[in-house]
Structure formats: C-alpha cells, structure tokens
Design goal:
Helix content of chain A: 25-40%
Shape of chain A: elongated
Strand order of the largest sheet of chain A: 2-1-5-3-4
Distance between the termini of chain B: 72 Å
Radius of gyration of chain A: 22 Å
CATH topology of the largest domain in chain A: Fumarate Reductase Iron-sulfur Protein, Chain B, domain 2
Oligomer: heterodimer
Strand content of chain B: under 5%
Largest sheet of chain A: 5 strands, mixed
Bound molecules: iron/sulfur cluster, FE2/S2 (inorganic) cluster
Structural class of chain B: mainly alpha
Number of domains of chain B: 1
Number of helices of chain B: 8
Largest sheet of chain B: 2 strands, antiparallel
CATH class of the largest domain in chain A: Mainly Alpha
Number of strands of chain A: 7
Chain lengths: 249, 253
C-alpha cells in the first residue's frame, strides 16, 4: 500500500468546565474508522483520553460523538470518508463528563416516565392471544432496532439548540412510545402523554433524527408523524370527536 | 426530581460536514426558499392577474373546477375558488413543513448546524400557532374532491368538438394529474387514515393493502411534492401562453 500522510485528528480534551481541541498525528491504516484513530491516539499519545466504546460494530451505541460537527457513531465512520483532518467532539446536547464522554442520564430518566408494555387483563392469562402475525411483528421490529446511541436526541434541534428538555422527550422516546402505542396487545392509550409531557408537538418534522439514525429507523415517517396523526384524531379533529360522541364512545 | 442538564461546554463553531450529503449545507434551504417564493409569486399572479385558464379543450389546474361568479358586477377571480385548497394542503403537508421550517425559519437550516442566536429557549414548535398544521387531514379531504375534477378535465379534453384529439396540452394535463395523484395519495394523513391508525395490520387485509399502497408513494413523498409542483406550473404556463396568444395556435397545440 502506498504510504499515506498521517491523519491530523483533533479531539476535544476537557470537562464540563471547559477545554480545548488537541491535535494528534495518527498513522492511517486501510479500513480504519474514526474510533480506531481515537484509540490509537489513546494507546500511543494520550493514555488519559476518555472515550466510551464497547462493540466496535455499530451495535452497542456507546461511541456516539460528533465527527466534523455532525453526530456519528465513531466506529461506523470510515476515516477514508473524510480528508486528512478530522475533528471529534462530544455530543453537544448533553453535559460533558470528560473528553468524548457525555452524561446521557437524562435519557434514562425520560425512559422511566413512559409506562412499560401493558397487556389487557384478558390477554395476560390467555396463551392464544400471543400468537402474532408477521405483518404486526414487522411493524414493531423496526422500532426495536434502536441501539440507544442517542444520536437522534443529540441532533434534534428542540433539545440541541433550544434546550427544551423540559418540554420534549426527543425522537428516541417517540420511537419507544410508537412501539408501545402501535402494539396490538398494548392496552394503554398513550395519546394524552404524547400531547402532554412527552411534547410530540414540539417536533417540527425537520427530519434530522431520521438522517442520523445508524439503525436507519424511519423515525419521523413511521414513528413521529403517525403519532402526530393519532394525537390529531383525539385532539384536533372536531368531526371525529363528534362521531365519537354520537357513537357513545 | 427531574433534572434538566444543560448542554455541553461552549466550543468554537466548526464547519459542519454532513457525511450523508456531498452538497454544502446551505444549498437545500436556499433552493427551497427560492423555488417556493417564485412559485408563490407566480400563483399570486395567476390567481389575481388573470380571469381564466381555458384554451379550447384545455383547462389549467388552477381553474379546476371552473367557477365564474359575479359579485356586485365584479368577477371573482375564478382561480380563487380553487387555489385555497392546494395552498392549505401544501402548507400543512408534512414534507413541506420540513422544507419551510428549514428554509424560511432556520429551525434548523440544516442538521447539527447552529441556529441563529435570536432563536432562544422559548421555542414552541407546533404547539402554538403551528398547531394548526394538525388540521392537515381537512385539507386532504378538500383536495380529494379537487382531484376528481382534475381527472375529469384531464380525460374530457381528449374529446373536443365531436372528435378525439391529442395535443401537447393533452399530454401535459395527463402527466400533471398523474403526478398530483402521486403526491396526494402518498400523503401521511391518508396513510394514517388508510390503515396506519390501526394497531392490528393483520385484522383487515383490505386496510393493510391500502396502507401498503399509500406507503409505496409515501416513501418518495418529497419527490412527488416537487415534481407535482413543477407539473402544475408547466401545465398552467403552457395553457396560459396559448390563451395569451404568445404560442401559436398550431394543430399540435
Ligand atoms: S424531526 Fe422532530 S424529533 Fe426529529 S430532529 Fe427534527 S424536530 Fe427533532
Ligand atoms: S432511534 Fe436511532 S439514532 Fe435514535 S437512539 Fe435509537 S438507534 Fe440511535
Ligand atoms: S462501539 Fe458500539 S456502537 Fe460504536
Ligand atoms: S403529508 Fe404531504 S400531502 Fe399530506
């Protein structure tokens, strides 16, 4: 292989108080991903460089960060896709712990506010109720592919630019709520929460979450927009609510 | 207690490079802003600056259905009876919402690109005024009625003065109505109505088929949105040039 000039990898070094971008010169190997470059710098130049990772296979969701300012999994970003200079920063929507590691615990708090899967009393004890058709399974499977990398949360301008963590659960949890709301065997009506504290109305369908999702979940098309339509059924459709009332429901 | 952590430390801005797109990140919003503004100006001129869109068998999509009504001796611009429906439909369309929130409001201009400093923490998304977008389905109902008129006009023009004829305008009208159908029947609200609102796809084959059909068009909803915008423009422009006598009234016309 022809010799390639080394990669100039600039990495954020610092913590919640502040920090700076530090540049490391990293030899490029064929097939290298940005995580390899960061780990090479850690092994050879900066042993105290903090970075979170586990699988290096785009499946655990730990290595979420920003490559050249754009939310990415470090282990899924080939160095060859960028030039000779790459900048790596922690996710901007969450507080920095140190270097590339962010505190994503807010997401787990949000998760706890969503009621888990709740089948009806009748279904609970009936084994026949649990035989599902493939088409129904497929709809749910798309949402279950989520690896909780929180890249979508990071890119969502409601959280990232406006800091409205008080008002909106974020796209990741719209995906979770969709997986429950659309489940044939879930008995809860999740629309009041969606319109209320989950804040689906804060999303303006600009689709950045769908653009960054490494699992290619159609976050807006299959989760958020259908949820908005379900919310509209209940709260923004006078015709439907009249019919409901006439039908005695 | 619910904690609301702030964002990370303030870092110097970097030029954001979207790895999914080779184009500079200002290009999409700029193109959208220019195209939509141009189309809005053209439509305003059609509606308020013209009194009709019929040339022989052809009828411009801005005038379908054709309604001529005089109020106090003044002709109400006939396109006015029609144009509100597509305007409401496109203004509340889930795709165009992305387009204009990015291009005109910079919310956000492009993914991960910082928003203007004037955008503070009082952002309300579609919960305030923009909650009106939740009424999209009503625009869909109106537009479905209009689609029936458009299909009728597109087919009726083949039969003119007792004979079948085909001209360039016939082709334009057919292409236009096909593209408008591709756009309309890929609507997210229709997808919901057709079957998406059900929790059980396997419970009704018909509903599932309908949902699948809408989904086929829905995946490319953005492209249908643009293509149909241009076919409306092209069809109207062609017929208008014939009406205004700019184009010769030749046999192929
Ligand atoms: S589409 Fe909605 S949830 Fe997704 S990034 Fe945009 S505003 Fe956030
Ligand atoms: S929805 Fe996609 S981007 Fe969001 S957390 Fe899950 S895998 Fe990551
Ligand atoms: S290390 Fe597991 S997703 Fe990147
Ligand atoms: S979502 Fe685009 S037309 Fe309904």
């Amino acid at each position: 292989m022809a010799s390639v000039s080394p990669l100039q990898l600039s990495v954020f070094r610092g913590d919640a108080e502040g920090g700076e971008m530090v540049t490391y010169s990293v030899p490029v190997r064929e097939g290298m991903v940005v995580l390899d470059a960061v780990l090479w710098a850690q092994a050879n130049l900066a042993p105290d460089l903090a970075v979170r990772w586990n699988c290096k296979a785009a499946k655990c969701g730990s290595c979420a960060a920003e490559v050249n300012g754009f939310p990415r999994l470090l282990c899924k970003s080939p160095v060859a896709d960028y030039g000779e200079e790459i900048s790596v920063r922690p996710m901007a929507a969450f507080p920095v712990v140190r270097d590339l590691v962010t505190d994503v615990s807010w997401n787990y708090e949000v998760n706890q506010r969503i009621a888990p899967f709740t089948p009806s009393e009748a279904d609970r004890d009936d084994p026949r109720a649990w035989r599902m058709q493939q088409v129904d399974v497929e709809r749910a499977i798309e949402f279950r592919k989520c690896i909780e990398c929180f890249l979508c949360q990071d890119v969502c301008h409601v959280l990232r630019n406006h800091g409205r963590k008080d008002a909106y659960f974020g796209p990741r949890f719209m995906v979770r709520m969709a997986s429950l709301e659309m489940h044939p065997k879930d008995s809860l009506d999740r629309r009041p929460q969606l319109k209320g504290e989950a804040g689906v109305g804060y999303c303006n369908i600009t689709k950045c979450c769908q653009e960054v999702c490494p699992e290619h979940i159609h976050i807006t098309d299959n989760a958020i927009i259908p949820l908005k339509e379900r919310m509209a059924d209940e709260y923004f459709d006078p015709v439907r609510s009249l019919l409901r009332r006439l039908g005695g429901r | 207690m619910q904690t609301v952590p702030s964002a990370g430390p303030k870092l110097a801005r970097v030029p954001v490079r979207n790895p999914y797109s080779a184009l500079p990140n200002w290009l999409y919003p700029a193109l959208v802003a220019v195209t939509l503004t141009a189309f809005a100006l053209y439509s305003a001129w059609v509606v308020f600056g013209n009194s009709g869109g019929r040339f022989g068998p052809y009828l411009s999509p801005f005038y379908s259905p054709e309604i001529t009504l005089r109020l106090g001796g003044f002709l109400v611009p006939p396109a006015l009876w029609v144009a509100w429906a597509p305007l409401a439909f496109r203004a509340t369309c889930y795709y165009y919402r992305k387009a204009y929130f990015r291009s005109f409001f910079w919310h956000p201009r492009s993914c991960a690109v910082p928003e203007p400093r004037s955008h503070g923490s009082n952002y309300r998304g579609e919960t305030g005024f923009w909650a009106l977008n939740n009424l999209h389905r009503f625009a869909l109902y109106a537009i479905t009625v209009q689609m029936a008129f458009l299909w009728f006009d597109a087919l009726a023009q083949f039969y003119y003065q007792g004979a079948f004829r085909v001209g360039l305008g016939s082709l334009l009208m057919i292409v236009n109505v096909v593209c408008l159908s591709g756009y309309t029947f890929g609507c997210h609200a229709l997808r919901h109505l057709a079957g998406g609102r059900s929790d059980c796809f396997s419970c009704s084959r018909v509903r599932f088929r309908l949902w699948k059909g809408v989904t086929v068009l829905n995946v490319r909803h953005d492209r249908w949105a643009w293509v149909s915008l241009f076919t409306v423009l092209g069809t109207d422009l062609y017929i208008r040039l014939l009406v205004l006598g700019v184009l010769p009234h030749a046999p192929w016309a």
